[in-house]
Amino acid sequence: MAAVESPIDMEAFENAVHEWFSTNTGLMTIWRQSSSPQPERPYGSLLRVAGPVAISPHWEVRASTDLSREAGKEIAQEACVPCRITISCQAHVAQPDGSNPNQNAEFYINKAQSSLSLPSVGVTFKAANISVLQPGEVQNLNQIVEDSFESRANIDVIFGASLSLTEYVGYIKTVQVKSTALGIDETVGDI
Asked: At what angle do helices 105-115 and 10-25 cross, to 10 degrees?
């Protein structure tokens, strides 16, 4: 039995989400789980907070046959299920911009949220085989950082994708059917 491949290309997923957020907010954007240094404010940050989670407990199995593949691997059996992945998207803005409604963190998060409806964003996501299932509400997370006010806002976006695994199996080319009771003695299939 072979090792199971990854059921989703998380790198392509994360790259598409990063491209959407950084391009549409104009912010230098980092993944919060990485070890990269925190950039100067204003900046954006992303974190996968949930998923991938299968939406259904039942995986669909699709089969296809390609007789040009090597013997024993002519039939591809793909098990797949839609899933959801939740990404926390934040903007971090220092003073004095953090007090300006046209430059604070909520301003950037509103831009990101609104851009989810743009056709160009849909094209980017489609190329990575993902979709937007549900953008959340904008949350105000303002805080004091090192004795100064930081404007910080968040939106959790639930993305749709699919989990998919494929294995290859062979098929039985010929079968000998024999029954003295029924008077059958035949070879069925390719002879």
From this structure: 120
Higher per-residue confidence, 122 vs 4: 122
Helix-strand-coil split of the chain, %, nearest 5: 20, 45, 35
Q: How many degrees, rounded to 5, is the angle at CA 115 between CA 113 and CA 120?
A: 150
Give the amino acid at 103.
Q
Q: Does 124 map to a domain? A: yes
| pTM of this structure | 0.83
Q: Number of H helices and number of E strands within the chain? A: 3, 10
* Structural domains of the chain, count: 1
Q: What is the Cα–Cα distance from 134 to 7, expressed in whole angstroms? A: 22
Query: pLDDT tens digit string along 3-51?
Result: 667 899 999 999 999 999 999 999 999 999 877 788 899 999 999 999 8
Backbone angles phi, psi at 31, to 5 degrees: -90, 130
Domain span at 72: 10-189
pLDDT at position 28 is 96
